[in-house]
Amino acid sequence: MTAKTKELISMVESLPVDIKTTLVEKILNSLYPSQKEIDSLWAKEAEKRVKEIKTGKVKTIPGDKVFKEIHEKYCR
Q1: 8-45, pLDDT tens digit by residue?
Q2: How much is the pLDDT for 32?
Q3: Which residues, at least 6 apart from 51, have a Cβ–Cβ distance to it below 8 Å?
Q4: Which element (helix H / strand E) includes 5?
Q5: Distances in Å between the alpha carbon of 59 and those of 3, 45, 62, 76?
Q6: Where do the structural domains in the chain lie, given as residue ranges?
Q7: Can you tell me the distance from the alpha carbon of 6 to that of 4, in angstroms, rounded to the nearest whole number?
Q8: Contact, 52 vs 58, CB < 8 A?
Q9: Residue 70 Cα to chain centre, angstroms
């Protein structure tokens, strides 16, 4: 690690939490840029699934039951 990198990390560590949060969001966005079309499609899919649950079209399964079944199937 270079001296400049160490200095930068030290500066970041001394920042207030809200500034660190903003910085993390910006770094993540630079690594994984938002894809508005894909984000929009995921939002529509989530809304559709919520509607299906609320109307009774699909039934939910408790998480502990799902994980138990996965454990039984793959952890023998």
Answers
A1: 999 999 999 999 999 999 999 899 887 888 989 999 99
A2: 86
A3: 57
A4: helix 3-13
A5: 56, 16, 10, 28
A6: 36-74
A7: 5
A8: yes
A9: 22
- Planar angle of CA 67, 69, 44, nearest 5 degrees: 60
50 is written with which tokens?
Answer: 């919520």
pLDDT at 10: 96
Task: Report the alpha-carbon distance of residue 15 to residue 9 in Å, rounded.
Answer: 10
23 near 12, Cβ under 8 Å?
Answer: yes
Task: For residue 23, give both structure tokens.
Answer: 């910085």
Total-model pTM: 0.48
- To the nearest 10°, report the CA torsion of 65, 71, 74, 76: -130
User: pLDDT at position 27, please?
Assistant: 94
